[in-house]
Specification:
With 195 residues, this protein is of the alpha/beta class. Helix 2 (45-53) packs parallel to helix 4, helix 2 (45-53) crosses helix 6 and helix 4 (117-128) packs across helix 6 (166-194). It has six helices and nine strands, in the order H-E-E-H-E-E-E-H-E-E-H-E-E-H-H. The protein has a three-stranded mixed sheet.
Length: 195
């Protein structure tokens, strides 16, 4: 719906627009000071992984291990938030330079390869040194076997190349989760001193 509104608006006025389609944005700023803080129990894989590792969630569940993939778990495409931020600046430069010939261009932002859920878990365990408490459960209704981006157009037209690896994505997400935990510990201790 949002894409349709932007597309129709661009057609109705003298304006060019670019739509960026994100495929599972993950990670945090490498400094560890900016990241994702889901409200309630997260449903996205990376926050579930980091919250399980931090002890906020007792365990995580892998939804199915009998898909026709490398290891039986679903394949998804993850892209680091800093790579997405870079795509935004490149898109603005592209628009300012007048390179967008359509009223509304569309670019997919993803790694273009896809990673299984179990590969993501193993990569996290490798970069963090933390063994995750997870179990294999039944398939989740509606889950597709594999979905990942074709980012060829963004690479060709915008000159965009994702630079963060899966390990980078998970390491920065873990750094952020650890910072949150440290901050919570600090503020809880200061709050208890006041009581």
């Amino acid at each position: 719906m949002g894409e349709q509104i932007i597309n129709e608006f661009a057609k109705s006025v003298d304006l060019h627009a670019i739509l960026l389609r994100y495929f599972n944005p993950v990670g945090a700023h490498p400094s560890g000071f900016i990241g994702e803080l889901p409200i309630g129990t997260p449903s996205n894989l990376v926050p579930v992984i980091t919250q399980t590792a931090a002890g906020k969630l007792p365990e995580m569940q892998v939804w199915g291990d009998d898909y026709p993939t490398r290891d039986g778990s679903c394949i998804r495409d993850y892209i680091h938030v800093c790579d997405i931020a870079h795509a935004h600046t490149l898109s603005l430069q592209y628009l300012i330079a007048g390179k967008e010939t359509k009223k509304c261009g569309v670019f997919n932002l993803g790694s273009g390869t896809g990673v299984t859920v179990l590969e993501a878990i193993r990569a996290f365990e490798k970069v963090s040194g933390v063994a995750l408490n997870y179990r294999i459960g039944p398939r989740r209704p509606g889950d597709v076997i594999a979905i990942y981006a074709n980012n060829d157009l963004a690479r060709k037209e915008l000159g965009w190349n994702p630079k963060y690896s899966l390990e980078d994505m998970l390491a920065t997400a873990w750094r952020w989760e650890q910072k949150i935990k440290m901050d919570e510990t600090f503020y809880n201790s200061k709050f208890s001193e006041l009581n």
